[in-house]
Structures are given as structure tokens and as C-alpha cells.
Amino acid sequence: MISKRLVDAFNEQINKELYSEYFYLSMAAWFDSQNLPGFANFFKIQVQEEHFHAMKMYEYVNERGGRIILKAIDKPEVDFESALDIFKKAYEHEQLVTSLINNLMDVATEEKDHATKSFLNWFIDEQVEEEASMDAIVGKLKMLGGNGHGMLMIDNELGTRVFNPPVK
């Protein structure tokens, strides 16, 4: 059985994962409005990943005998200046999520819940990839200055991204 403290922490994290889904959908919508379908696709895939993360946590809490309590999801930002602005915000957001996952791991450690620590290791590894991915695109966009054929090349590249849910 999972402790109430961990259930409460997971319920908060599930809310943050669902917010991330909503935040990235807002970014996808902005790119769609700018006729950049590849960039929009990148964030639509992020939406699917964040939903997968929330549901992975949801299922885990249920398997351990906890109760999911859903809370309201905050409204995401909707106005952005540029592709670079969006990716900088996405990178900052992933850094925040990393800190939240680390805090969840701290609670699991304090509760001496080794099963939860094992479960959370996947998310810790995932966050390394998430931050690296956003940071790499920020770097490319800085080189381009947000203009020219390079933007179209990145748009085409990001348009090829697909969601491959990991094996649970």
C-alpha cells in the first residue's frame, strides 16, 4: 500500500503532467496559427507524451491502492513572440518538471517506498531526454535568428516526429 503522503504528491504531479499537456497544446495551436505544421507536430507529440506520463502515474497509484483526486488544470499561456520564445519556455518548463519529479523522489525516499523509487527512476531518466531535446532546438533556433530557409528546414524535421509510447 502506498502512503497518503505519496498519493497526495502523485495527485499533484498528475495535475502538473496534465497541465504540461495543455501547455504544449497551446504551443502547438500557436504554431498552427503561424502555418508551421512541423513545429505544431512536435508539440502535439509532446502533448501525447505528457498524457502518457500522467496516465502512467495514474495507473501506478491505482495499482498501489491509492485514490486519484483530480484538480482543476490552470489555463496555459497562449500568446508567444516567436518559435524561440516558445522553445525557451518549453525548456524552462521541462526544468521545472525535473525539479518536481526530483521532489517526488525525495518524498518516496523519506517514506522508504522502494517500489515508488524504482518506478520514478524511469521519469528521472525521461527528464534528462526532455531537457536535452528542448535545449537542442533552442540552440538551433538561436543560430537561425528565427528567419529564413533554416526555419523551414527545422519545420520539416520536426514534422517527422512520431509518438512511440514506451513499453510499460
Textual characterization of the structure:
This protein has a single domain (4-70, 81-158), classed as Ferritin, core subunit, four-helix bundle (Ferritin). It is 75% helix and 0% strand. The chain has helices at residues 4-33, 37-63, 83-110, 114-144, 149-158.
Question: Keyphrases for this structure?
Answer:
Ferritin; mainly alpha; 168 residues; 0% strand; 5 helices; elongated
Radius of gyration: 17 Å
Uncertain segments:
none
Identify the CATH architecture.
Up-down Bundle
Major sheet: none
Give the CATH superfamily.
Ferritin, core subunit, four-helix bundle
Structure summarized in a few sentences:
This protein has helices spanning 4-33, 37-63, 83-110, 114-144, 149-158. The protein has 168 residues and is mainly α.
